[in-house]
Design goal:
InterPro entries: Ankyrin_rpt, Ankyrin_rpt-contain_sf, Dendritic_Spine_Reg/Scaffold. It holds the Pfam family Ank_2. With 223 residues, this protein is an all-alpha fold. It has a domain of 90 residues: Ankyrin repeat-containing domain (Serine Threonine Protein Phosphatase 5, Tetratricopeptide repeat), CATH 1.25.40. It contains eleven helices and two strands. The protein is flat, with a radius of gyration of 26 Å.
Length: 223
């Protein structure tokens, strides 16, 4: 009898515990609904901001501004579209004959910005509709990081896969540092990207940069 009474009054089965669990589940539901509402509001604000960017660009063009007009950072409206993942704005600017491969004050193009932030829809559009330069040879040297290098450094695996499919070479090096997409991925500990690039004939990229840094050394510097 004593044993049976003890089990019936166990903490997990007590009225107090059941009430606590009920409150916990209710709070979880409320939190989930709140998070969903916040997410919807965030997406709505982003959509409104993107629509405003398109409207502003249309008004500027109608007012006589050049489609390649730049701000103090050298950003054109197309570059801004790439940075903020605004496909509608990118489509508008390409229709208006914007120069796709223009560089900002840091030497970064619209394609590079889109690759850096993982904006795959913009990357695809710029390559397939805007004819952005992406194809490079294994022996190519670049004055700065390529779109593939930016994507590799930031771990944007879907963009990396697409750019390689679009014939961007994993072995292209920068002239100044001699760095490659593999070195950048290793230096940022982007394991998934590194595995993919090394499986795509990245033999030349295993060589060190101009300072003697190999992918293994670059990866070890993370720790």
């Amino acid at each position: 009898m004593g044993c049976s009474s003890s089990l019936s009054e166990s903490p997990l089965g007590s009225p107090r515990a059941r009430e606590a669990n009920r409150i916990l589940r209710r709070n979880e539901r409320l939190r989930a609904r709140r998070d969903a509402r916040v997410d919807r509001e965030r997406k709505k604000r982003i959509k409104m901001k993107k629509n405003a960017m398109v409207t502003r660009a249309q008004l500027r063009i109608e007012a006589g501004f050049h489609v390649d007009a730049r701000d103090e950072y050298g950003h054109t409206m197309l570059i801004k579209a790439a940075r903020f993942d605004n496909l509608a704005l990118a489509e508008l600017m390409v229709r208006k004959k914007a120069t796709v491969d223009l560089r900002d004050t840091k030497g970064i193009t619209a394609l590079m910005w889109a690759a850096r932030w993982g904006n795959l829809s913009i990357v695809r559009f710029l390559v397939e509709q805007g004819n952005a330069r992406v194809s490079t040879n294994d022996t190519d040297e670049s004055h700065g990081p390529t779109a593939l290098m930016f994507a590799a450094k930031e771990g944007q695996i879907e963009v990396v896969r697409y750019l390689v499919q679009a014939r961007a070479s994993v072995n292209t090096r920068t002239i100044a540092e001699g760095t490659t997409a593999v070195l950048m991925a290793a230096g940022s500990n982007r394991v998934e990207v590194l595995d993919f690039l090394l499986g795509d004939k990245a033999q030349a990229s295993l060589q060190p940069d101009h300072e003697g840094t190999t992918p293994l050394i670059a990866a070890s510097k993370r720790y």
